[in-house]
Backbone:
């Protein structure tokens, strides 16, 4: 994986921004659920909605996925690739 | 590779005479239920998986003179044990070894959809891929070649549009041929990402020879790498301690291996998709994303939700309540009169009373719930089917956090304001077992219409002009108690672990009336069958207690229980009459007013004045508080039993509400006396 810039938590991306997943943190159960929904390292995410509080909405692998803020903080992304 | 079952099923000659067992697997929102309904129609049976609260649907159909038994596996994104659903799905395939597994895949979200297929192929049963929603994929500008996908996967692929019944014949033919062993079956399996293959190989060496049947060894090794709790437990018990130590150390050193496993599957999917998708999705903004700008907006989204809920309640009261009254007057009333007219000349008086009042009363309780239930079920099924349910959960998520729940619990709980029964049945939309159980336990704390009616009648009696404020106060109190109970239960029962809020927001689509109709039909039927029997039995028992031995409530066993409980009631300022009224509300909440009328020998008009003169406002308030938070009606208890599938949880819930309601009542009474 190309290391273009430091990875930041997904919840810091604004509406409309894109990123590439670098790493998943958090417990094994949470990671398993994220992986099954297509949030794998290397996958591209587009933020569809992030109002800075409450849950956020992203598109990954052609699917719209809603994540709680706490959950989103466990997805580390590299901003703006692709 | 260790898969004897496959060879067995493919060469069995007598498979033609026997019933062919087919499992239907698929992720949520891929059209699995539509396909299930299409194949089985009304020949289906809905129940629970043994010992679980998860719905089990099973149906029969015949094709080409052969009968098929189709079992609908729970919709899951993967087969790793995150919830009971995944375990049920994979255990069914491993233990029952179906002749064919139909894997339903959504063509419009092919990448994500194929993830479950990648998992299914590792299990010892032949898979047929039903490539559904080809029309939606086309609308989104995608072009998929099913033959290429079939060649790449190495398993049969049948393109379909289940909502229009297209592709059904081809699917059935393929399933029949696979069941007869006529189709060459050589699936290409996904591999673990390269950097972790040596780990997998080493792991396999440690468990070799110790894996219990019917689990394939390579599958077990894979699940260990993924950190699957169920498989880990199984292997720990099966391995000699020194081998487990080594395997465990290896797993601990690679606790990120699950990412390598999943990435391996997605690499495999990537190859399939690159081969089979001729033209990818056009980068346009679809209808779904346009609608979601409003439906998931923090403010407009709530407004839309409020509007939809308002419409559901309006519909229920304008259509449901009159129907309820009609049933009450014509069916229940006529039935009671008919029994009296027929039996009075020939049967003893007590038997006539038992049938005309006890049994018919119980039947009436079941029957009169139906109009409201059918409407609520229809509304829920409609919102679920068009894809709105997930949006409602999304906008309510933050609020529900406060009670240890997440967004999906909101709608069922809210329906509780209409009636607790559909609220509890509606919790089936919650996938997580923990969250669902907690929602069921909390649902009775939502004040239903019947309770609100009691409040509306009694509050003016005790408080005159302040009645409205008191009524709102009681509703607010219920919600606060619900939130507090939720937060506490979540901590005590589930150690504060809230299941993670991650969910898919499916594409919006036009409702499928067949799916909605069948869902309403099945749920109503199972309510009558399961909860109905409990409701009928308990109604008859309580009726008998309130009539025997003398025929009047005052001298009845129920009144004796009321007098016996009086010391407890006294703490909340309630005398035996209020306690008996409270107990009689167990059949139906409205009963408490009728009982008070009997005990004070007053009609409804006289009763309000009488109550005001006998009881102080402090007593009145305490009574209303207890009544509002008390054990729900027998119909609700019946469905709690049905949905939790456990008397233990049902009794726990009843006991909990008993304690909570009395504690609140006592607190309010003592506080009110102090203040004066």
Residues:
């Amino acid at each position: 994986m190309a290391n273009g810039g430091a990875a930041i938590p997904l919840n810091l991306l604004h509406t409309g921004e894109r990123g590439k997943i670098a790493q998943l943190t958090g417990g094994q159960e949470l990671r398993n659920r994220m992986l099954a929904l297509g949030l794998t390292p290397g996958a591209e995410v587009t933020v569809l909605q992030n109002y800075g509080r409450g849950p956020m909405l992203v598109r990954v692998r052609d699917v719209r996925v809603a994540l709680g803020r706490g959950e989103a903080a466990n997805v580390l992304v590299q901003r703006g690739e692709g | 590779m260790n898969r004897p079952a496959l060879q067995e099923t493919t060469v069995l000659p007598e498979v033609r005479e026997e019933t062919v067992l087919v499992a239907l697997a698929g992720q949520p929102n891929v059209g699995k239920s539509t396909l299930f309904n299409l194949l089985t129609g009304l020949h289906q049976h809905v129940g629970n998986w043994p010992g679980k609260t998860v719905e089990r649907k099973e149906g029969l159909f015949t094709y080409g003179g052969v009968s098929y038994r189709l079992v609908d596996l729970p919709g899951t994104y993967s087969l790793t044990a995150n919830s009971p659903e995944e375990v049920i799905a994979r255990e069914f395939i491993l233990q029952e070894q179906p002749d064919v597994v139909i894997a339903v895949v959504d063509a419009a979200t092919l990448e994500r959809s194929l993830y479950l297929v990648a998992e299914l192929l590792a299990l010892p049963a032949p898979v047929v891929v039903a490539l559904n929603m080809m029309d939606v994929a086309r609308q989104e500008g995608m072009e998929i070649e099913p033959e290429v996908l079939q060649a790449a996967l190495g398993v049969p692929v049948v393109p379909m549009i289940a909502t229009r019944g297209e592709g059904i014949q081809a699917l059935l033919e393929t399933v029949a041929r696979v069941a007869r062993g006529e189709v060459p079956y050589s699936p290409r399996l996904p591999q673990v990402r390269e950097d972790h293959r040596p780990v997998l190989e080493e792991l396999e060496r440690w468990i070799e020879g110790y894996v219990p049947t019917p689990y394939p060894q390579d599958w077990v090794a894979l699940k260990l790498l993924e950190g699957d709790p169920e498989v880990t437990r199984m292997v720990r018990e099966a391995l000699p301690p020194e081998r487990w130590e080594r395997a465990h150390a290896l797993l601990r050193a690679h606790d990120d291996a699950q990412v390598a496993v999943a990435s391996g599957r997605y690499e495999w999917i990537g190859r399939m998709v690159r081969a089979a998708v001729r033209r990818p999705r056009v980068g346009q903004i679809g209808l779904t994303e346009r609608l979601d700008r409003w439906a998931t907006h923090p403010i407009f989204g709530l407004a839309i939700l409020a509007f939809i809920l308002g419409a559901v309640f309006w519909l229920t009261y304008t259509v449901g309540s009159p129907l309820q009254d009609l049933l009450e007057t014509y069916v229940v009333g006529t039935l009671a009169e008919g029994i009296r007219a027929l039996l009075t000349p020939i049967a003893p008086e007590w038997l006539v009373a038992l049938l005309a009042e006890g049994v018919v009363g119980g039947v009436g309780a079941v029957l009169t719930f139906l109009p409201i239930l059918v409407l609520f079920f229809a509304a829920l099924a409609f919102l679920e089917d068009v894809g709105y349910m997930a949006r409602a959960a999304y906008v309510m998520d933050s609020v529900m956090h406060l009670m240890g729940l997440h967004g999906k619990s909101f709608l069922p709980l809210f329906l509780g304001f209409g009636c607790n029964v559909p609220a509890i049945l509606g919790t089936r939309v919650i996938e997580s077992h923990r969250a669902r159980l907690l929602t069921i336990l909390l649902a009775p704390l939502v004040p239903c219409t019947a309770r609100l009616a009691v409040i509306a009648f009694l509050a003016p009696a005790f408080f005159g002009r302040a009645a409205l404020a008191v009524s709102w106060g009681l509703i607010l109190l219920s919600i606060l108690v619900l939130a507090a109970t939720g937060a506490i239960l979540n901590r005590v029962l589930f150690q504060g672990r809230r299941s993670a809020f991650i969910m898919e927001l499916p594409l919006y689509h036009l409702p499928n009336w067949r799916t909605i109709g069948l869902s309403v039909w099945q749920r109503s039927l199972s309510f009558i069958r399961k909860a109905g029997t409990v409701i009928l039995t308990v109604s008859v028992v309580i009726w008998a207690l309130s009539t025997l031995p003398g025929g009047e409530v005052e001298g009845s066993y129920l009144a004796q229980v009321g007098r016996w409980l009086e010391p407890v009631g006294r703490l909340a300022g309630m005398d035996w009459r209020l306690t008996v009224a409270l107990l009689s509300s167990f059949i139906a909440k409205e009963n408490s007013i009728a009982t008070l009328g009997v005990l004070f020998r007053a009609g409804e008009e006289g009763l309000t004045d009488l109550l005001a003169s006998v009881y102080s406002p402090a007593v009145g308030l305490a009574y209303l508080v207890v009544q509002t938070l008390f054990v729900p009606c027998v119909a609700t208890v019946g469905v709690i039993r049905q949905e939790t599938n456990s008397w233990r949880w049902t009794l726990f819930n009843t006991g909990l509400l008993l304690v909570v309601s009395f504690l609140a009542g006592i607190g309010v009474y003592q506080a009110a006396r102090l203040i004066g």
